[in-house]
Design a protein that fits this description.
This protein is an all-beta fold. The protein has a single domain, classed as Beta Complex (Metal Binding Protein, Guanine Nucleotide Exchange Factor, Chain A), CATH 2.170.150. Helix content is 0%, strand content 54%. The protein is built from no helices and nine strands. The strands form three sheets. The protein has a four-stranded antiparallel sheet with strand order 5-6-7-8, with no helix packed on it. The chain has a three-stranded antiparallel sheet with strand order 2-1-9, with no helix packed on it. Strands 3-4 form a two-stranded antiparallel sheet. The protein is globular, with a radius of gyration of 12 Å.
Length: 93
């Protein structure tokens, strides 16, 4: 799978994990130079607390367009640290 935003490949992996129709990319498959830490957090009843990254690509910003679970609940342990995208990020093969 590949993730694109603002005409740039930001992640690529053959080992994504699909949860609730979202592809979670292994941390090493995401280009860190495009990730900016965010203070945003959200809560999922079964996955736990999500943390976010904003994307900075080719001079444009996409606030909180990526999320991950640094300390997931046991049911979501398989996606610990994996990164998913939304807000216009195109994920395709």
């Amino acid at each position: 799978m590949k993730a694109y935003w603002n005409n740039e490949l930001i992640a690529e992996s053959n080992d994504t994990i699909v949860v609730e129709n979202n592809h979670y990319f292994p941390p090493g498959s995401v280009k860190e130079e495009f990730l900016q830490p965010s203070s945003t957090e959200s809560q999922c009843p079964w996955k736990g607390k999500a943390s976010y990254y904003s994307l900075e690509v080719n001079g444009s910003s996409n606030k909180d367009a990526a999320w991950f679970y640094p300390e997931p609940k046991p049911a979501a342990e398989n996606i610990r640290g994996y990164i998913a995208f939304w807000k216009g990020v195109r994920v395709s093969q």
